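hey m, so remember when u said the tokens were messed up on ur end? i reran from scratch. heres the input so u can diff it against urs
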Amino acid sequence: MRVVWDGGAEVLSIKEALKKADESEMDLVEISPNADPPVCKIIDYKKFLFEQKKKQKELKAKQSKVVIKEIRMGPNTEDHDFKFKLKHAISFLKDGAKVKAYVFFKGRSIVFKERGEILLLKFAQELEEYGTLEQMPKLEGKKMLIMINPKKK
């Protein structure tokens, strides 16, 4: 088997490789068992695992989590309520969260689909300087929704 360590690499038998690992007070770890000859490395295995865990933690910390905030309206939402919800949406977008705004149709209010679509388009237009519209209003069951992404700074 081919053995790799800090000082170099050579082809050794298993006994010789284990002896060499014991002499350096490290572990013999099989890296590539399918290679011809198999490749092993003399390393401190506990330190190796610690480094791997540390790398995983760093990668996880660098990932950005997508936060989605929802805003619910009815098809007959009045102007004051609209502005109130608009203020909330602006603060969410400034914080870097996505906004999912939807109009919920209760009972027979589904006949006012046009009102819902107009309301959502007006909402998206008001938020134009804070975010970009990801999708046009679409009806899913009793909800008509839009998604707005925050603008990059």
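this time it looks ok to me. The beta strands are 2-5, 8-11, 27-32, 39-43, 68-73, 98-104, 131-140, 143-150. if urs says something different then somethings off w ur setup not the seq
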